[in-house]
Amino acid sequence: MRDTITIPAKLDVQAIRQQFPILSRVVKGRPLIYFDNAATSQKPQRVIDALVHYYTHYNANIHRGIHTLAEEATAAYEQTRDAVQQFINASSREEILFTRGTTEGINLVAQTWGRQNVKAGDEVIVSGMEHHSNIVPWQVLCEEKGASLKVIPVNENGELVLEEFEKLLTKKTKIVSIVHVSNALGTVNPVKYIIEKAHQVGALVVVDGAQSSVHLDIDVQELDCDFFAFSSHKLYGPTGVGVLYGKKHLLETMPVFQGGGEMIKEVTFRKTTYNDLPYKYEAGTPNIADTIAFKAALEFVNETGKAKIRDHENELLAYATEKLEEIKGLRIIGKAKEKTSLVSFVVENAHPQDIGILLDNRGIAVRTGHHCAQPLMDLFCIPGTVRASFAAYNTTEEIDELVIGLERAIKLLNK
Amino acid sequence: MSEKKTIQEVENEIVEEFGLFDSWDDKYEYIIDLGKKLPDLPDMYKIDENKVRGCQSTVWLIADYKDGKVYFSAESDAVIVKGLISLLIRVLSGRTADEIIEAPLNFIQQIGMTTHLAQTRSNGLRAMVKQMKNYALALKIKYSNNGTGYEHRGVERKGN
After folding, report:
1. Helices assigned H by DSSP within B5-148
2. Whole-model pTM?
3. Is A415 in the B-facing interface, judged by CB distances under 8 Å?
4. Of B25, B28, B78, Cβ closest to residue A351
5. A62/A174 same-domain check
6. Residues A225 and A246 in one domain
């Protein structure tokens, strides 16, 4: 009998590319090569269509309207909540709060649970590879409460030093807020382990999933995280929509974040009673259109297959790492064993900004700078890096173009 | 000694020079070359107070006032930015405060460098122009009572 080998179907990149109209743009006389996906991904046609369809056919304010359009808009909006619940495997839809983005999600936790529970002398733990969005909200809280912020160190490969983390954990630790995947290095952090350890001392864990939600399978129940924040726009969806997942029993007892319409049950000048979950945390008219269109982005990911996308992105990562390392004077920053499809690097005698300008001149979009992670850049003693981050629609041919562009830029800068 | 060219004349000269280049690569090559030729600032001036805010790269800018005119010196750790500063210095340095404040600086657009004026924090040419004009304005106010013949060198230089 012949052995059968199942070869998983590979991602049809050309078919994917056709779904993204922006990829046919010409920039500086050349076809656009978009390698700034960790900042924001491009949007497939179905997301753009969903936005147009909403405004063309059923634009209405949601929840209390009794007319047809309001009902349709409400239904579509709430369907996105269901889709998100499935996407991260939350146990109930009430645990899914819509926000403006990851940043607002983290601020929400700091300003509600944090203000209620963090007291003078308590400690909040973050890591040395956090985005400013996961540093500043906690600094503000700690300053207000007289609590202190502790930082998990990062090693030279760009990985967390877990032994040090364990030393930081004490009875004083109230919250551990940790990035799942570093936006500057691509490092995938062992959040499940961190959550387990933090829970042992009674601390809650907030996971910043801005970078991870598009690449990794997210199961908040399996992770057992208390909060998980992410953004639509890094996940092929529109800007201005984010999700904060929170465990139901926490959301039920936390104070409100913002006051206004939608979040109330009854208002008198004497007292206001708040609405049920999740509406208690969604004051004011939300970003209806973008939230509705976010569902189309999740469908794109689900239908394409996250695992298939991940395999493709991993191939791109391996290819890019190999090709870039061949460039003389180029040093990759962040060599963690587990990484998502992102390469951050510096080049000897060439400022990241100069490289970025010269690559843009060839239609190649990369990000340069400190990536909103200044403490991390200080650790590596660099002003910033050039970052190329890959998505489902990127190709190895584009990476070849990046290498050519880089070689030319380096030559020009060192003439 | 011939009369110093006007700001407009210098701007026209730069536009003409850039007109000679066929490709963007050549334009950038020229800017990079200008950047490399710009003399470095002594280390004592490379302090936080002299940094131009709003640039992705680090830019230090200082202004001197002499005989009623403002003289600029600057440096950056990024060479393209340095080249752009070099052009700004060529146009604006050695002018009266009023000339600097009123300079339209249309050449930036004419040589196709408008992207560097964009409201993104990444390039910072806008921040540099603003800073140069601010220096001019501050010096004008500071020395408006002293006349133009009084020599003040290094007054705005902040260094150790």
Report:
1. 7-19, 24-37, 79-92, 97-102, 107-110, 125-143
2. 0.91
3. yes
4. B78
5. yes
6. yes
